[in-house]
Design brief:
By secondary structure, this protein is an alpha/beta fold. It has eight helices and 14 strands. The strands form three sheets. Strands 2-1-3-5-6-4 form a six-stranded mixed beta sheet. Strands 9-8-7-11-13-14 form a six-stranded parallel beta sheet. A two-stranded parallel ribbon has the order 10-12. Helix 1 crosses helix 8. The longest helix has 14 residues. It starts with 12 loop residues before the first strand and ends in a 13-residue tail after the last helix.
């Protein structure tokens, strides 16, 4: 059984956090504290995996003792083609950040985006400024029910196509481009899932500015927030929320049915 020294046995449910710099994140340690607090015989370990080794690692997971994995931002698109089964959200948006192993099948879903949406609801956010038109922006727009979302990008034609594909009827679309002066302070939160290199056109940010970027990822939103002395929230600022979401996800999938005190032979 896993004990206070974080030892594991062949009964322990083992999970990975897969990323190029996974070891630099504290998500595994945070989740393990939650496992321990709830007396669960489970553990997550960081797995530093280079891009060249990613597919090899995932394919081998099917025959390993690893029961699932959280996927780092840089690999959320790559993992989709390795999956044997996927949730409707994964199929629709072409991204996946959580997998579980069922026998020799890998089953994928989306977790981090849902955790971010819950976080914003818990903060009583209503009005959201969403930056970008990529996969993550589309997933957020479609999954974030209960918000009044305004959309921002530098190309209005592409933004109109994006909102149409995302199913955002009568969307409030806005241009955000070089040479402009944009005030986002009236929004409850700014969510940046864009490909902008800089965010200089923004003169004022919101009280909550979120992009879920990890430490090793460059964040234009973080850079602009520092310049404007505004609150920034990235992946490592949401470890508790993400760990709780992970715990509930695994519990829902019947992966955490055994406690440390259970005798199993």
């Amino acid at each position: 059984m896993m004990n206070n020294a974080n030892e594991i046995s062949h009964h322990t449910k083992l999970y990975g956090f897969i990323g190029e710099y996974a070891g630099q994140s504290s998500i595994s340690a945070t989740l393990n504290k939650l496992f321990k607090a709830n007396n669960k015989d489970a553990m997550m370990i960081p797995m530093n995996i280079r891009e060249d080794d990613f597919f090899f690692t995932l394919v081998n997971m099917k025959k390993s003792h690893v029961n699932g994995a959280l996927i780092s931002n840089e690999y959320v698109k790559n993992v989709v083609e390795v999956l044997d089964e996927a949730s409707e959200a994964v199929k629709r948006f072409g991204m996946c950040d959580i997998i579980i192993r069922d026998g020799q099948k890998l089953i994928g879903d989306i977790l981090g985006m849902k955790a971010a949406i819950k976080f914003l609801h818990d903060k009583n956010c209503k009005k959201i400024a969403l930056l970008g038109i990529g996969t993550r922006a589309k997933a957020f727009s479609s999954l974030a029910n209960g918000f009044e979302i305004s959309y921002f990008y530098d190309d209005l034609e592409k933004l109109m196509i994006f909102t149409d594909e995302a199913g955002a009827k009568d969307a409030d679309i806005n241009r955000l481009a070089e040479g402009m002066s944009v005030d986002l302070s009236l929004y409850d939160a700014v969510v940046d899932f864009s490909d902008f290199a800089v965010l200089k056109p923004i003169d004022k940010l919101s009280g909550i500015n979120l992009d879920m970027k990890q430490k090793k990822e460059f964040s234009p939103l973080k850079a602009r927030a520092l310049e404007l002395e505004a609150c920034y929230i990235g992946f490592d600022d949401m470890l508790s929320e993400l760990s709780e979401a992970l715990f509930e996800f695994l519990k829902d999938k019947k992966h955490l049915e055994y406690d440390k005190s259970d005798m199993r032979f």
